[in-house]
Amino acid sequence: MDFYGQIWPQVRDIVVKSLMAANLSVSYNPNCFELFGYDIMINTEGKCSLIEINASPSLSKDCLIDELVKQKMVDEIIDLVNPAEIN
Q1: Rounded to 5 degrees, what are φ and ψ at 12?
Q2: How many CA atoms lie within 13 A of 78 on its CB side?
Q3: Contact 39/54 with Cβ under 8 angstroms?
Q4: How many angstroms separate the CA atoms of 58 and 44, rounded?
Q5: d(C-alpha 57, C-alpha 38), whole Å
Q6: How many CB atoms lie within 10 A of CB 52?
Q7: For residues 73 and 60, is the Cβ–Cβ distance under 8 A?
Q8: Whole-angstrom Cα distance, residue 39 to residue 54?
Q9: At residue 16, does pLDDT exceed 90?
Q10: What pLDDT, in 10s, does the model give residues 38-82?
């Protein structure tokens, strides 16, 4: 299965369409950001289906894969947000 050619475009499409559908329900606040957790199922043919979207996804690190994936995600969020240094 080709992740970047087959899976990732479907995941991106699911995320974009869900955010567009909820656009009016998500309040605008330029001083903060919100992290959503998407649960997506991939069948044996490579078709992606949305299971649910979590407004408060778990960031616990109960196993090695949690540590690898979630810590990298948090690091990348901090890089994107680029908070000002506090002196």
Answers
A1: -60, -40
A2: 8
A3: yes
A4: 27
A5: 8
A6: 8
A7: no
A8: 8
A9: yes
A10: 999 999 999 999 999 998 999 999 999 999 999 999 999 988 888
